[in-house]
Amino acid sequence: MATEANSVAHPTLIEVDPFIPADQQKGIHNRWHPDIPAFATVKPGQTFKIQCVDWTGAQIGNNDTSDDIKNVDLTKVHNLSGPIAVEGAEPGDCLVVDILDINVFDKMPWGYTGIFELENGGGLFAREFNSKAAKAIWDLNGVYATSRHIPGVRFAGVTHPGLIGTAPSAELLATWNKREGELISLHATSIPPVAYGPNPTGAYVGQNLDPKVMEKIVREGARTIPGREHGGNCDIKNLSKGSRCYFPVFVKGANLSVGDLHFSQGDGEMSFCGAIEMAGIITFSTSIIKGGVEKFALKQPIFLPSPIDPLYSSKLVFEGIGVDIHGDGKQYNMDASVAYKQAALNAIAYLMKIGYTREQAYLLLSAAPVESHVGAIVDSPNACVTLAIPTGIFDHDILPNPNGFPKRNFGQCAIRSDGAV
Asked: One Pfam family of this protein, by short name (predicted)?
């Protein structure tokens, strides 16, 4: 039981309500910009807690329709808690962040995985599947997740922040916006978009700022969708409690922000909203390595993953190569993205033979602790990527057998109220 002394030693610097829209709460922001001031300041070595809303800011509900996924407002994401300044951190330093613990809110012991619409978010197979919104709600009980929308599975989560990073300098922010703007210009009609440029619509900073400063932030602020040199939205599933992160520092204080907490995720988070998205509480401790950027050639963060990992020794491995076998048969040259897609499509086709719908299989591969590895990246023309599904997450046998699989009916995940899939 926590003592009063422990409570004082481990303060909660940002408190949120997971059921209240994020843009009505303090200590939250959804853009990267160096002019967003620190919401709180800590000393190196201090242990502290931060509460986080889910990445959409309470737009998704625990229900049996995916209309909320269909209509989600993506101009408002991701909702990050912070920034947190660390005393003594200066540009060129390395900020060391220890992730000590991650927990769900007692009053919100559930999360969700979503397939987003082709024209509102997309995902790995947005074009191949002409994606329509679908959703699975997961009940989170201790370390385990189960879902009424994907029966027959139960697995241990590797809970982690999908998004964590330091604030960019003005120079780095300008670099991001320039290079991503050039990409957008080259693919102006792409659906889903190849990138998301600065957009004042939906921008939010949960602090009282001078109107001129706020106008600058919303006009220039970088969207949080991709990972970049500072960290950001990298969705590294083993960055769970016990992990250590080494971030380059670009502004005084480093200004650390975190959000997009995941209860579990497969390598790749393929459906875009592919993890088990959750609100929760994360506990940190930090330290500083002076001059760490130069000492470690720190162009991007370095991570020391957690030693905690679910023990699933038996895995069914699907291979993919750089040929569009599930499409037009086109040969690609050493394209690992194509190979990953083919491995995932092979796994989805297999799970459909067992009785799961395509949407259930897609959601499951996104949320469960599947592992993906690059098998070969030197044997022209075919890169080879593998995707491994732990067999122990199922309450029924999924291994190939001479008689095939008995016909099973696992129902369907939550779909749109108009029935479209």
From this structure: FmdA_AmdA
